[in-house]
Amino acid sequence: MLVQPGGAPLTYTILVRGFAAAVALAGRTDRPDVRFDLTLTVTHPGPGFPDDIAAVMSYEDIVEDLRRLCAESNVSGAEYLADRAADLCLSHAKVRRVQVDVTIPAADSDASSAGASLTRGRPGLA
């Protein structure tokens, strides 16, 4: 593992912006398209790493996790979705930190949307 000056592991950032999927929310008869924006800090595989998907973190793995999350029924809200998305991201060993923003459009087009944002890191890591 490569380290930066000071000993912190070398990382890179994966951005997932504007992922949206219909979600069955508790208390709503419609299935609004919920938006997810993720920023993942991921351990860098090192110099000269092979051109192999196994050597790097694939954003497609995260997108598949989000699709499964959005397929759940009777979802309680943005906080639940943000919490579960963070857990799913951190279940991948290469992910060190994740910021999750979730936005749920209002049922009424004249009302404001609701959302949640959280940042979580792997326990024991700075």
TrEMBL record:
GO MF, one annotated term: dihydroneopterin aldolase activity
Residues in Dihydroneopterin aldolase/epimerase domain copies: 14-120
Keyword Metal-binding: no
Database matches in InterPro entries: FolB_dom (IPR006157), GTP-CH-I_C/QueF (IPR043133)
Keywords recorded for this protein, A-Z: Plasmid
One BP annotation, GO: folic acid-containing compound metabolic process
The protein's name in its UniProt record: Dihydroneopterin aldolase
